[in-house]
Specification:
By secondary structure, this protein is of the alpha/beta class. It folds into two domains: 226 residues, Aspartate Aminotransferase, domain 2; 117 residues, Alpha-Beta Complex (Aspartate Aminotransferase, domain 1). The protein contains twelve helices and ten strands. Helix 2 runs parallel beside helix 7, helix 5 packs parallel to helix 6 and helix 8 runs parallel beside helix 12. The model has no long low-confidence stretch (mean pLDDT 95).
Length: 361
């Protein structure tokens, strides 16, 4: 049973089918001959599909190796003060060690009053604010429109890591950003592909220089198969039924709380992604849970999967002022649209079995 979709999603069937025909493509997209032009056409069709989805112009979609590169592209090159929410993904949080941290409340929602205080007292050139659309560990959805209004008031740029939000939330909730980033492997496309999506009047400085591809904003011969897979995955998002997934998530949470009333589900008081549960099992450590679930062929995680396979104490839960004992008991369960109610019930049986056998009173 695979319940780690926030780490990576399975390749979509439609993407596999699209790639089968793309394997025969030949030619460098920068070449002027017909082979090159044919490949260039495939890239631009994918770019147009993504631009249409995000209601922007195709020239505002810049392909990268993933959201990590795209996040670094924006953060490392900004000359003014930088403010990051304290729950950002590591590819944002670690990109600027000189950034000031924006506090979040106990539910994991960014503190707008603290953000306004930081912007009001900012010194130097135009500030950059980075707040993710939805957290990868807790699933908590951030008030991006309110953050945007503050940025507009204080003439700041807004960068949004939209990796977990794409397809699950309406674009209107986060596409007001100056720049935002997406990642292919979270959407059922290939890994190693992502995109930076920007406003027309914003021109980022290149992080990678070379042959001038991607309108001189990201040099290097394009990842043709990756780009085709990302375009197809974005096109396929309209078929996803996240309402059913949310019903399954709520059903699992209800069973957990009924069986073990002192179970803690982080962020449960606020809006969350329909597929994500960050839950502390009382008296059982995260690493023991992961091992026991894996023995039953159930894939879950203890938080972000982008830390070289290490089980680390959650920086996100620390920022929410969660008790360290609870942090050490937390796991993340994340579903996909193909997850079934029966699977959720099987997962609960495994979860409750682990609790009954291993919890320390």
């Amino acid at each position: 049973m695979y319940c780690d979709y926030n780490a990576t999603a399975p390749l979509r069937d439609s993407v596999k089918k699209e790639l089968m025909s793309a394997f025969d493509l030949l030619g460098n997209p920068s070449a002027v001959h017909s082979y090159g032009r044919n490949v260039r056409g495939c890239i631009e069709r994918a770019r147009n599909t993504i631009a249409d989805y995000f209601k922007t112009d195709a020239q505002n979609v810049i392909f990268t190796s993933g959201a990590t590169e795209a996040n670094n592209m924006i953060l490392k090159n900004h000359k003014g003060p930088v403010f990051l929410s304290s729950i950002e993904h590591s590819s944002v949080f670690n990109a600027r060690i000189d950034a000031q941290s924006i506090a979040v409340n106990e539910d994991g929602v960014v503190d707008l009053y603290h953000l306004e205080s930081l912007l009001k007292n900012a010194e130097g050139t135009m500030p950059l604010v980075a707040v993710m659309a939805a957290n990868n560990e807790t699933g908590v959805i951030q008030p991006i429109q309110d953050v945007f209004n503050l940025c507009k008031k204080y003439q700041a740029l807004l960068h949004v890591d939209a990796v977990q939000a794409v397809g699950k939330l309406e674009q209107e909730t986060y596409n007001c950003a100056t720049t935002m980033t997406i990642s292919g492997h979270k959407l059922g496309a290939l890994s190693g592909i992502g995109a930076l999506i920007k406003k027309s009047d914003y021109h980022p400085t290149a992080l990678i220089n070379g042959g001038g591809q991607e309108r001189r904003m990201r040099s290097g011969t394009e990842n043709i198969l990756g780009i085709i897979s990302l375009g197809k995955a974005i096109e396929d998002l309209c078929h996803d039924d996240w309402h059913s997934t949310q019903h399954i998530r709520e059903h699992l949470e209800s069973m957990m709380l009924k069986a073990v009333p002192n179970t803690i589900i982080f962020g449960h008081k606020v809006s969350r992604l329909p597929n994500t549960i960050d839950v502390a099992m009382p008296g059982v450590s995260s690493d023991l849970q992961l091992m026991l679930f894996d023995q039953q062929n159930i894939a879950i995680s203890s938080g972000s999967a982008c830390s070289s396979g290490k089980i680390q104490s959650s920086r996100v839960l620390k920022a929410m002022n969660v008790d360290p004992l609870l942090i050490n008991n937390a796991i993340r369960i994340s579903f996909g649209t193909k997850t079934t109610l029966d699977q959720a019930e099987d997962l609960f049986k495994a979860w409750f079995g682990i609790y009954q056998k291993h919890h320390k009173k």
